[in-house]
Each structure stands twice: as structure tokens, then as C-alpha cells.
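Q: I'm building a small set of examples for a reading group on sequence design. Run inverse folding on the following structure and report the sequence directly after it, with nothing in between.
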């Protein structure tokens, strides 16, 4: 099934489906644990990596039929919130937290062994997300230090890291920060473009760099902020121009109006979705080979857009924190209580 066919199948009314065939849907896979997986990296329909609480990293190579615990030794006290996998053997995982709780590990053998390649020694820093442009070049971001978001850079696949100069970073707003909710507060597209999502301050913003994090420009979004629990939680760009932002208020008892926005100019301006998701969403991804279809996930469900983020409709009510798709139409989602699922068709 090609990308267009998958989109058509997702959006087709029930009566139009083939007899005895369900429409595309999330199928839960047994992870064998109750860990919350906010970190997810899909490699293919068969291979995916999960990263979560209690220092847990899992990997599947059989489509989720079985999961191997490949957690770094001695990491049980760490909170893994983001993982970026290059293939079934190589991956980089980020632990979040204040001071030395923020760490980065890399494996080259499918998680048999791990090397700690970065440990934060600045008590003021708190790293949230990591992204890679290719197998060598990547960035990680920290909440503001000395009034500016801090950017960490690697040019050797995450084996070593250095803090980039802050000269090209705009000043942060008071109380502005990133959300380590889904591993999607820092995302890239192509060889040089990267975007950073913020919240917690008066305005929810998206910062864009076109030179791998050396210089940045900030843009306001219509997603509500003004509270530590509100802002942009996740971004997805299908190319260097077209992006989707999702977020809201993560508190279950609070509404999340205008929980999505779209950009058609590389993040310079953002327009609110005409029909946004009905609640807070923490993860978002474009469907592969589609210029108009994307999925957004959160604790109360999954929403689908078929018009590039302008309107959304709920297609599932299961709880997920993050979502990721691959070129071979492997779409995965993960979240609380060990939940992980693959989109079946």
C-alpha cells in the first residue's frame, strides 16, 4: 500500500472498506513493561526503538512481536525522553533532568553495549530533546541558560558533543522552556534546517535555524501559552518549508483550544488550525509519501489531518505520547504503562 493509498484507507468511511477488512488502525504490541515511553524512533515497519522512564530502552526487529531490553547498565535512575536511531544497530538516547541527570548515550551494536558520550555538568542546564540531520550531524537543546536556549552539537554521530556559541540565539522570554514530552521539541528536515518548540512563557514560540543551530530566528505561534503547562509540545516538518505544531495544556482538567498550527514558510509565520484536535497533543508526524496527511497523538487520542494540518478529526481514543513513521509505511506510537502500537492496514 503506497502513501496515498494509506491516506485514502485512513479517511474512507466504514461502509467503503472491503468486507472482512478493518481500516488502518493502531494495534497494541506487548512491550512486557509498564514503563512510560516518551522516546520513540521508528526505523522501519519491523524495527523500532523505545526510550522511557527507569532508564529503559527497548528494541524490536520483528514488528513488535517481541521486544529486547537493551537498557544501558546503571541507568535505572535516569529518565530517557528521546531516542534517535540510525538503523537496527546504531542509536543515540537522551536522558533529561537538571545538572548531571542530563546525559547522552550511544550504541553501535543494537544496545549490547553503550557509551556515555555527554554528561551535563552545568546545574543550570536541563536538556529536553535531540535531533539528527544525518548519521553524523545532530543537535540537542537545553532550557535557557543565561537567558538563552543552549544548543549542543555533534559531528561524529553522537560520539562527542560541544556547546555551540549563543551569539546567534535570540533572548528567551521569562519562564520560557522546552517540553520533554515526546522527543519532538527539537526537529530537523534536510541537511541544515532545525526547529525548536517552546512554551511556559507569555507566548508559545518556534525558533528556526537554517545553519545547523548557529543562528536562530523566533516566531510566535497561536497556540496558547502564559502558563508553565502550556505551549508548543511537538513539531513535524515534511520538508524545509511545511510544518505542523501541536500542544496545548497538558493538565487533564484544563481545555486546550487552538492546540495546533501550521506553517508554509519554514516556520516564519504560523496559522491556527481551522479545526484543531479536541485536546492537548504531545506528538505529531507526517504520514510517509504524503503532502497532506499527518497524525497527532496525546493522552486522549489520535487525530488525523488530510489537509496538511488545517483540520483534524479523532480516529482513535487510546493514550499515546509520541508517534513516528518511516518511508516503508511503518508508523509507531508509544506512551504510558508500556503502551506501544504499530499502524496496521
Amino acid at each position: 500500500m503506497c502513501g496515498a493509498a494509506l491516506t485514502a484507507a485512513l479517511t474512507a468511511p466504514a461502509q467503503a472498506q472491503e468486507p472482512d477488512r478493518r481500516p488502518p488502525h493502531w494495534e497494541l504490541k506487548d512491550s512486557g513493561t509498564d514503563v512510560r515511553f516518551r522516546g520513540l524512533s521508528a526505523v522501519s515497519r519491523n524495527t523500532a526503538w523505545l526510550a522511557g522512564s527507569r532508564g529503559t530502552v527497548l528494541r524490536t526487529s520483528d514488528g513488535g512481536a517481541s521486544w529486547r531490553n537493551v537498557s544501558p547498565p546503571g541507568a535505572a535512575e535516569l529518565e530517557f525522553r528521546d531516542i534517535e536511531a540510525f538503523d537496527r544497530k546504531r542509536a543515540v538516547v537522551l536522558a533529561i533532568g537538571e545538572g548531571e541527570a542530563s546525559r547522552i548515550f550511544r550504541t553501535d551494536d543494537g544496545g549490547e553495549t553503550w557509551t556515555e558520550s555527554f554528561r551535563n555538568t552545568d546545574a543550570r542546564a536541563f536538556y529536553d530533546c535531540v535531533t539528527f540531520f544525518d548519521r553524523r550531524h545532530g543537535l540537542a537543546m537545553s532550557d535557557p541558560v543565561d537567558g538563552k536556549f543552549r544548543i549542543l552539537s555533534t559531528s561524529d554521530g553522537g560520539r562527542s558533543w560541544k556547546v555551540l556559541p549563543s551569539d546567534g540565539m535570540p533572548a528567551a522570554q521569562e519562564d520560557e522552556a522546552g517540553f520533554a514530552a515526546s522527543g519532538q521539541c527539537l526537529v530537523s528536515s534536510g541537511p541544515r534546517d532545525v526547529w525548536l518548540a517552546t512554551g511556559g512563557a507569555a507566548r508559545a514560540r518556534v525558533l528556526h535555524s537554517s545553519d545547523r543551530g548557529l543562528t536562530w530566528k523566533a516566531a510566535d505561534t497561536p497556540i496558547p501559552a502564559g502558563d508553565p503547562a502550556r505551549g508548543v509540545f511537538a513539531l513535524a516538518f515534511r520538508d524545509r518549508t511545511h510544518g505542523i505544531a501541536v500542544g496545548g495544556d497538558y493538565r487533564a482538567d484544563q481545555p486546550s483550544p487552538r492546540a495546533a498550527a501550521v506553517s508554509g514558510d519554514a516556520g516564519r509565520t504560523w496559522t491556527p488550525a481551522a479545526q484543531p484536535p479536541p485536546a492537548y497533543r504531545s506528538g505529531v508526524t507526517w504520514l510517509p509519501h504524503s503532502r497532506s496527511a499527518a497524525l497527532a497523538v496525546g493522552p486522549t487520542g489520535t487525530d488525523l489531518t488530510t489537509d496538511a494540518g488545517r483540520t483534524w478529526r479523532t480516529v482513535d481514543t487510546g493514550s499515546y505520547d509520541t508517534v513516528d513513521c518511516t518511508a516503508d509505511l511503518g508508523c509507531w506510537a508509544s506512551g504510558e504503562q508500556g503502551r506501544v502500537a504499530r499502524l496496521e492496514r
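The longest strand covers residues 91-98.
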